[in-house]
Amino acid sequence: MTRGFYIGRFQPYHQGHHRVVQDIAEEVDELVVGIGSADQSHSVRNPFTGGERIMMITKALADLDLVTYAVPLEDINRNAVWVSHVRSMSPNFDVAYSNNPLVVRLFEEAGIEVRGSPMFDREVLRGTEIRERMIASEDWSELVPDAVENVVAEVDGVERIRRVSDTDVEASPSD
Amino acid sequence: MTRGFYIGRFQPYHQGHHRVVQDIAEEVDELVVGIGSADQSHSVRNPFTGGERIMMITKALADLDLVTYAVPLEDINRNAVWVSHVRSMSPNFDVAYSNNPLVVRLFEEAGIEVRGSPMFDREVLRGTEIRERMIASEDWSELVPDAVENVVAEVDGVERIRRVSDTDVEASPSD
Amino acid sequence: MTRGFYIGRFQPYHQGHHRVVQDIAEEVDELVVGIGSADQSHSVRNPFTGGERIMMITKALADLDLVTYAVPLEDINRNAVWVSHVRSMSPNFDVAYSNNPLVVRLFEEAGIEVRGSPMFDREVLRGTEIRERMIASEDWSELVPDAVENVVAEVDGVERIRRVSDTDVEASPSD
Amino acid sequence: MTRGFYIGRFQPYHQGHHRVVQDIAEEVDELVVGIGSADQSHSVRNPFTGGERIMMITKALADLDLVTYAVPLEDINRNAVWVSHVRSMSPNFDVAYSNNPLVVRLFEEAGIEVRGSPMFDREVLRGTEIRERMIASEDWSELVPDAVENVVAEVDGVERIRRVSDTDVEASPSD
Amino acid sequence: MTRGFYIGRFQPYHQGHHRVVQDIAEEVDELVVGIGSADQSHSVRNPFTGGERIMMITKALADLDLVTYAVPLEDINRNAVWVSHVRSMSPNFDVAYSNNPLVVRLFEEAGIEVRGSPMFDREVLRGTEIRERMIASEDWSELVPDAVENVVAEVDGVERIRRVSDTDVEASPSD
Amino acid sequence: MTRGFYIGRFQPYHQGHHRVVQDIAEEVDELVVGIGSADQSHSVRNPFTGGERIMMITKALADLDLVTYAVPLEDINRNAVWVSHVRSMSPNFDVAYSNNPLVVRLFEEAGIEVRGSPMFDREVLRGTEIRERMIASEDWSELVPDAVENVVAEVDGVERIRRVSDTDVEASPSD
């Protein structure tokens, strides 16, 4: 039995992520999807809560023939303990999938196998692109699984990101 | 569609929890199982990591005809923001199940419906009882679902709790 | 102009505190009332939120001929920086009033003058006594200023402390 | 009885804030002034401590015919729990005043009424403008209430901001 | 070249610790002395600051023919990441010395060799014993190296622990 | 006996720092070298862990005729308590050496003597310059003491910084 680990912020979970997961599914029996910055929300960069992203991922993966776990990970802001943090919050895994050079390095220094995660249509299938389309009232729904579109609608997500986008990029509630 | 929320520490997830979940399954379409103190582990009171408990719960609930989410919740140590913390890390829910008077009060002050969760064979089906049996080398496996027994074996959990039980109750690594 | 500093948890603010403040009022022109453990609430030991305690104190001191500031102080859990924390969150003060030996020592090591705060009818005028009476449905209102009684009523405080008192003393929401 | 809530960083509290408060005073009986980023100080963006800002606001509002509370709020850096944090540290309020789109959104998602706070002479009456004038030794005192000018003098605030402005914008003590 | 790691709270560093270090010196070329709970001070259980304990250890080990490092370690309160925390704050080490069952288990789960640290005259050579003698004005100085006695004198340590011992055991500044 | 305090991030410790220390050695009997942002690592700006930097400094200063202490300091992100934090983690000191205007101001407000630390060949002897050379495979080793070159080699530091430099400047593991 092989269990893989795939990390992202998933703001939102989109077709690019989905194709990566489908590819990984060929190689592993079970997959942990780690949701980074799970404690961040209501900003242009991180519009959706950890719980909303758990819903997106669980719904989008329901039809896959693969045991999956959607695990929210709060930021810990100390690179040297990040791998331990991830391992303690996740079911055990044998291999990690990532293209983020920092993640790759951290896992490798901890002696964990890392494989590159192929990226698809990277020009368009990016969280930034989708969030910008939401703000600009352009079509974004084709870029995400149907289940994600439903979750965004349920939580009134487009209105939320549009509203907070009027705030200064670095703004916090006290500005 | 009704979604319920059920919280515990699940150290470990046992038959008492399982019967509660089976009962709740009669009333809701989906269930979020919130894993409290998910950041605590390797102590007599909290032997298993958040990730190990996610595995226990996901495996034990696999056969249930109910969409379930196992959501780890780090301690926040501020009762007044605890409900917001839970809601942001969990898929939306309509009703919470708990017998913990503090939890009931906090949810009620936040305007969330709470229902009591019936308890079964409370004398024996308690985490404390199971952990004490593990330490004393008495039989405990009948008190948990088979899936949980397997996870405990996979992570060498009985040896872990026995070892850390030699440490003073309040001990930390620096004692 | 002399400004004093008086610290407590004020769970709740009672006649014993009030007499201390009245005595201090003889010696200073302005008084900062520091509310300790301001981030703790909804427990038997700390039933009221920081905001509720600000209200109690501000209302109770309204008639005093003394400029007062009610300043909530979150716990910092590091004695060596506690004085700096207090000073940065409070208007400048010339003298601190306390009978807590730890507080006295910390202020003295920081070179701040400390004066003892006389205590009145210490058998009865204690937060513990008042909270126990609330839980036991005994009369407690004579032990607090009228303004405090009103705040407790407004926030349904007696019911809150009674409810959370059913929880284990050390319990947290995840128990 | 209506209680309002008005939030800002107040670095420093200036005539623009003061006119907003005077306007709000027409609509409410009591006003909570929430001091954001109360734990930040000694930087160009946040030169004054929480305690210094409490003094500015309390002194500037002393003559107003309005019960006011100046409440310092430490940053919590989790938008999803920010409203709970504010509510637990503040006396209860019925309506919040803000023009910050993120604040407006967060309060609205929590079901709290929000009203826009009119802004006055926004070109000049901004904290940034005042802080830049302090650094450049230009006249700034006409932009703040007299009480604020006194507090800045008492804490040697102009010298402080000038000195720390020599540090790189993002600098911390360890740079 | 072999580097060892030895952890304790060292409240204060005493002859029992010193003999352990002398024994370890036979087996390693360099030794890291990790100071646990370095952020705790001014309590009966942790009277001395991290910096004061660095001084005690550095002075007491000055004559030893062994390269030593005294490394303060702030508490992290998450057992599952504790080993990573220690490793990131310490020079690399090959073997850890400890008798604390929790520490032994945590290092072993991380794949690090652990050796027992022999204990000497455990009845008397304990931090608790020494701290109680300080409070009771009994002789304690024979139980610590001369260098430690000097540091305790320099920081007025006996008076400090006596004073804070009047506070309730669990007391914090806000009690 | 005079003890000095000198703070930096030392990413890495280089010849510029070393000459400052040699100069300070003329004025003091003992020197505390405070390692700022000790909890940060594995980024372009902070490639080395606190423990790795302790090694660099201890090894580089071994031949100096000066008692030195290398003290890691975790970030505390609250300027108003930073001096207390430093003092509690460091042996007592009489004078601080710094050119950082914020550090100078914070120490001065706390009543601690500060002396400027002369800088040498500032064009080249900067951490930024050295880190950029490491990334660009240019010669950097002449800019650091031999002991530091050895530590960088032992921890495979050049490969680490090169690898993480592919990550976006602001990237965290979850990007």
TrEMBL record, chains A, B, C, D, E, F:
Record-linked Pfam families: CTP_transf_like
Name the enzyme group at the top EC level: transferase
Q: Which CDD domains match?
A: NMNAT_Archaea
The GO biological-process annotations, alphabetized, read as:
NAD+ biosynthetic process
The protein's UniProt keywords, in alphabetical order, are: ATP-binding, Cytoplasm, NAD, Nucleotide-binding, Nucleotidyltransferase, Pyridine nucleotide biosynthesis, Transferase
Per the record, its GO cellular-component terms are: cytoplasm
Q: Cytidyltransferase-like domain spans which residues?
A: 5-133
Reported EC number(s) for this entry are: 2.7.7.1
Q: Where in the cell is it found?
A: Cytoplasm
Pathway entry: Cofactor biosynthesis; NAD(+) biosynthesis; NAD(+) from nicotinamide D-ribonucleotide: step 1/1
Reactions this protein catalyses = beta-nicotinamide D-ribonucleotide + ATP + H(+) = diphosphate + NAD(+)
Quote the Gene3D superfamilies the UniProt record gives: HUPs
Q: Which domain of life is it from?
A: Archaea
- UniProt xrefs under SUPFAM superfamilies: Nucleotidylyl transferase (SSF52374)
Q: Name one GO molecular function term.
A: ATP binding
Family as reported in the entry's similarity comment: Belongs to the archaeal NMN adenylyltransferase family.
Its recorded name reads: Nicotinamide-nucleotide adenylyltransferase
Organism whose genome encodes this protein:
Halarchaeum acidiphilum MH1-52-1
* Lineage of the species this protein comes from: Archaea, Methanobacteriati, Methanobacteriota, Stenosarchaea group, Halobacteria
